[in-house]
Structures are given as C-alpha cells and as structure tokens.
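Hello,

Our lab assistant flagged a job as stuck in the queue for most of the afternoon. It eventually completed. Since we weren't sure the result was trustworthy after the delay, we are filing this so someone can double-check. Below is the sequence as submitted and the structure that was eventually returned. Let us know if re-running is recommended.
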Amino acid sequence: MKNMYLISASILGALLCPGASLAQEPAATEGERLFRIRCASCHSLNTGENRVGPHLSGLVGRSAGSVEGARYSKALSASGFVWDEERLQDYLNNPRQAVPGTTMSVSIRDAAQRSAIISYLRSIPGETTQ
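-- returned structure --
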C-alpha cells in the first residue's frame, strides 16, 4: 500500500512539474516559439518569401530596407543602418520610436522575449551564394 502511494506521488509530481524537462531545451526553442506567435504572421524565414514585411532570414548583419521586392516605409528605406542586436532590441521594443515613420506597429516590450527572438533570428542563415 505504501508503495502505491509513493508511485502515485511520483507520477503526480512529474505531471505537475513539467518545467524540469523544459529547462534542458535549447534557448532557441523559446525564440522559435515566440517568433511563430509574434512575428510569423507578417514575416517569413524563407529567403525571397516576403509577406506584409520582408523575410527575416539572414537579418542580423543585413542593411535595413534592403530586401529586394519587400515593401518598406520611406523611413526604414532611408535609415542607412545595419541590423545588429542593439538595433533589433530598440526596434522590437518600440518600432515607431526607433524609426519614426516605419509601418511596423507590433512591439515586444518584454526584454527577455526580445532577446529570445533575436537569438533565434541569429540562428537563421541568410541566402548563400554558390
């Protein structure tokens, strides 16, 4: 009888504490999840596949407003900067403050979520030349 209680308690504990297994997953998994929830409706990760916004493959290190065939605001096209972590943090926190005149309206106020998304985007390679 005592063993049955121990087994039941162990099973219940495993069901109530799933976080232990989640802690072992790579950080990119959280960034991927957040990307799908917050960004994927407007942005693709496939090179050349532009949606409402440009594709984001190879974003880090790319000049802002430079994806061929994508629709950009005049403000972003004329910004002249290269996307790096600091720019992405500012832009994702408040796009219209970071680049007045931009058409992007979605902001991600949570710094940990922004960092997770940026880390995920860093893992997405850009177009390769052969």
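-- support follow-up --
The delay was a queue issue, not a problem with the job. The result is valid. The chain has seven helices and no strands. The CA atoms of residues 73 and 102 lie 5 Å apart.
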